[in-house]
Amino acid sequence: MVTEACKKNHITVNGQVAKPSKEVFPTDKITFRKDQITQIITVLDIPDNRVGAKLVDIYRKNETPAEVYEHLELLKLSKEHYRKNGDGRPTKKDRRDLNDFGKKTSE
Predict the structure, then answer these.
(1) Confidence class of residue 104 from pLDDT cuts 50, 70 and 90?
(2) Is pTM beyond 0.85 here?
(3) Among 44, 55, 78, 81, whose CB has the most other CB atoms within 10 angstroms?
(4) For 17-64, how does the pLDDT look when each residue is reduced to its tens digit (9 = 90+)?
(5) CB-CB neighbours of 75 under 10 Å
(6) How far is CA 15 from CA 8, 39, 60, 93, in A?
(7) What CA–CA distance (Å, rounded) separates 21 from 24?
(8) Cβ atoms within 10 Å, residue 28
(9) Which residues are paired to 60 by β-bridges?
(10) Residues 6+ apart with CB under 8 A from 83
(11) Are 44 and 28 in contact (CB under 8 A)?
(12) CA-CA distance, 43 to 62, in Å (whole number)?
């Protein structure tokens, strides 16, 4: 998954597009897009061996601004406001109500 993102130029290290074989060093800033937000990670240290997922946070620092996460939360809430997930396609009545709502606000 990460290799594909690197090949599509979606990951940058210190502002430069990263290849899958790019070596990462402490103090490097990694920028990537995930869940409709651009995340910024700073590498604090490189572990000697592989570590479990719970220990990864020791070696990195998330520097993504809090406003970005708030914006993502608002996007999720706005999508769920009208229709809950799993409710299926909108009915004809739902579509007509939306069209009528659009006409009332534009007048």
Answers:
(1) low
(2) no
(3) 44
(4) 888 888 889 999 999 988 788 889 999 999 999 999 999 999 999 998
(5) 13
(6) 15, 13, 17, 50
(7) 9
(8) 16
(9) 43
(10) 90, 94
(11) no
(12) 9
Contact predicate 25/46, CB 8 Å: yes
11 within 8 A of 5, measured Cβ to Cβ? yes
What is the phi/psi pair of residue 41, to 5°? -120, 135
38 in helix, strand or coil?
A: strand
Tokens, residue 95: 């579509």
Residue 32 gets which letter from DSSP?
E
| CA–CA distance, 82 with 77 (Å, rounded to integer) | 9
Joined together, the tokens standing for residue 85 give 């997930």
Structure tokens at 31: 């920028």
- Going by C-alpha positions, the residue among 51, 49, 44, 13 that lies closest to residue 31 is 13
Q: 75: pLDDT confidence band, cut at 50, 70 and 90?
A: confident
